[in-house]
Design goal:
The protein is an alpha+beta fold. The chain has helices spanning 2-31, 136-143, 195-198, 230-233, 249-254, and strands spanning 34-39, 58-61, 65-68, 73-76, 88-90, 98-102, 106-109, 114-116, 148-155, 160-165, 170-176, 185-193, 202-206, 215-218, 222-227, 243-247, 258-261, 265-268, 272-276. The protein contains five helices and 19 strands. The strands form four sheets. It has a seven-stranded mixed beta sheet with strand order 8-7-6-9-10-11-12.
């Protein structure tokens, strides 16, 4: 009987100790400018135990979809769970494995074909993008290079696109057309986020203009766009806000506890979601 009581109190102590650790992480993340936004349940990306190393890691997290490092696609429902009692479910497109992504809506698969990730313009998710799509030549120009990992439209009116390459740099491409009947061409390329400036290969980025959602992430650090003169420009109408990419120390501190970061949301290994406070 005494042994059972001792085991009970030991188990209770371990539970409380673990809860306290998670509570410390939550407090520090909130102090860093994030707001608690609920829970995220998805067994495939969480270890079943401390010894479990079979869980998958997230490569892209779009809000509507999650793509794993092995290229598998999972659909997401962050507001409520599916019938499997989780916020994720594997997409029916089991044969697709993602190599690259454009604007969180077009994917390049391992068969080197392009597919719609979401439903749009009367096309179904995971169906192939064909030359019947008026933007096919543009998608092909942006995604055909084997080194392309991720593409974002920075300014469509200027033909400006940001491309993350496997070399760890993010490039700015200007794409133009001589006329509406001519194919699009890359007329200039430059490095917009240089891995040398961030101390390591860039693994992910998001561009959302002058917004906290704009970020650059390496394996070790996270850099977010911040107002460098917030105390002045938010107070006086005649002072223009200035923005600068700054390191966010909370990521380096808890990089082993954060399973994904999107620019607007982060998720911890104890299944808590946090949203970015502007």
């Amino acid at each position: 009987m005494k042994k059972k009581i001792v085991r009970f109190w030991l188990l209770l102590f371990l539970v409380l100790l673990c809860t306290a650790c998670d509570g410390d992480v939550t407090r520090d993340i909130r102090h860093a400018g994030f707001s608690l936004a609920g829970e995220f349940t998805c067994n495939v990306v969480f270890p079943a135990s401390k010894e479990d190393v079979s869980y998958a890691k997230i490569r892209y997290f779009t809000g509507s979809h999650m793509i794993l490092e092995d290229g598998r696609i999972f659909e997401l429902s962050l507001g409520q769970v599916y019938t499997n009692k989780q916020n994720c479910r594997e997409a029916e497109a089991h044969n697709l494995r993602v190599k690259a992504i454009l604007d969180n809506r077009i994917i390049k698969a391992t068969d080197n074909k392009y597919y719609y990730l979401t439903a749009e313009n009367n096309v179904t998710p995971y169906s192939e993008v064909t030359t019947a799509d008026n933007n096919y030549d543009l998608y092909d120009l942006l995604l055909r290079d084997e080194n392309t990992v991720k593409v974002q439209t920075a300014d469509s009116s200027q033909g400006l696109y940001y491309l993350l390459f496997a070399d760890g740099n993010v490039y700015a491409d200007i794409i133009t057309k001589a006329d509406r009947n001519s194919p699009p061409l890359i007329t200039s390329t430059s490095v917009v986020y240089d891995k040398a400036d961030y101390g390591a290969i860039i693994r992910d980025f998001n561009y959302a203009g002058d917004s906290l959602s704009t970020f650059v992430r390496t394996d070790y650090k996270l850099f977010r766009l911040r107002m460098s003169n917030a105390d002045q420009c938010t107070k006086f109408a005649d002072i223009r806000c200035e923005f600068q990419m700054m390191e966010d120390p909370i990521y380096e501190q808890y990089k082993d506890r954060i399973i994904t970061y999107t620019g607007s949301m982060l998720i911890t290994d104890y299944k808590k979601m946090f949203s970015v406070a502007e």
